[in-house]
Structures are given as C-alpha cells and as structure tokens.
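Worked example 2:
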Amino acid sequence: MSATSTGPTGWKRALGLVPFAVFFFLPLYAMADFSTRTIQGVGRTLDGWRNLVADPQIYAAILTSLGLAALTVTLMLMLLVPTMIWVRLRAPWATRIIEFLCLLPLTIPALVIVVGMRDVYLWVVWIFGESALTLSFVYTILVLPYAYRAIDGALSSIDVKTLSEAARSLGAGWGTTIARIVVPNIWSGILSAAFISIAVVLGEYTIASLAGYQNLQVVIVTIGKADGMTAVAASLATLLFGFVLLLTLSVLTRGRSQTLTPEPLDGSHS
C-alpha cells in the first residue's frame, strides 16, 4: 500500500517562497541599482565597483577585514575545539562553566568591551604593534557565542566518549584521537562556526570604530559621506560574500552528510 502525500505540492511550496524571495532580493536589487547609477541619473556606470580595487583606502580595508576574518577563525578554532572536546571527555562538570563563559560576550556591550580591554591592549600593542590585525583578539571573544553553539550542536550529535575510547583502545594518542577521529565527525559544526565568525567579522563596525582602526565597515561609513555609490557597492559585495559563504556551507555539509550516511541494506540482508 503506497503512502499518500499530505504535504503541499511543488507549486504551492514555490508560491510560498515568493514573499521570502522578494523580501530578500528586493533590497539587494535596490543596492545594485543605486551602486551602478550615474550622477546624472541617466545610464549605468561601474565606477563604484571599480573603486573597490582602485581606491587604495577601500582595497586596504578589504584586505584588513579578510585578514581579521582569517586570524579570528584560526584563533577561535584553536581555542574552542580542543577545549570543548576535552571538557566532553575529561571534565563534563565544566560544561556549564564553559558555556557561560562563551555566551557571556552576548551580554556585554561593545563599548564596555573596548573600555574593559584598554589596559590589556596596551600590552598587545607593545608586543604586536599597532596593526589593525590585533583586533582579531577582541573578535575571537566576540564570535565565541555563535561558534560555541555551532560546535556544541555537532558534538551533541555524536558519541564522543565512545569514539575516543575506541581510538584509545587501539593505541591512538589524544592528539590523534582529536584530529583523526573526533574532528572529522564534527566537521559540519566547525565549518558553521568558521563561516558565522567570518560573517560577524566582516560586518563588525562598533569595536573597530571605537578602537580607532580602519576595517571595511569603518571605511564604508567614512566613504559613504562623500561617495554613496562606492559605499553601497562595498556593502553589497560584503552581503554577497556572506551569502556565498552560507551557500558553500550548505553544499559542503549536505555533501558530507550524504557521504557519511550508510547505504540501506537490501532484502538479502534482512
């Protein structure tokens, strides 16, 4: 007896997605329209987009933000992944403490973070110099709540203790167990944490502005006062880059889940 589908048909699903598509793409279209409009309002121009690489200030800000994103993701993963795995395996009693510490930045305003870290940053500047890339230390703290949730969800979906005990019983060390056994099984959560962190860093304005550094968002606001088309083009490029990251995450996680899903047994094995 075949099952009768009670869900909506394909065209109803597509029709239901139309309002969401309009809500999402209409602002992007308006930004693209404005960023390619001439000053006279007649015809189109790509000067605003050319300025993204032709203007030294914008180009330097893009490189700075990308460098901050790369450093932030690296520091976040080095800090969070081993800690969370170790807590799951050796110190389950500390789970709530780690969760509280990781979620704490959500409750602290950016102004308080900047003021509170002023004395610490004197040492950071003395050791690493006054480069804007030193903001990666602050951004690592800023992305902890989002990264923690992504990695915690991936760890909760597997039996970390059983996997690690099996690896240890076969002679694997703790480094091998984490790198070759646990991490591949939580790869989707790691990717989610990395991409969310990149999106947060690329869109951050308040801390960089208060600290006096020139990242992409600070430069966009500065240029927007004199050149609206270039500022809107830079904002649209940032949004599209974040969209591509999320799309890539969806494709990678879907492909990996299909790879890890075991093939169903046929009738001869039942």
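The radius of gyration is 23 Å. Residues 1-6, 261-270 have pLDDT under 50 and may be disordered.
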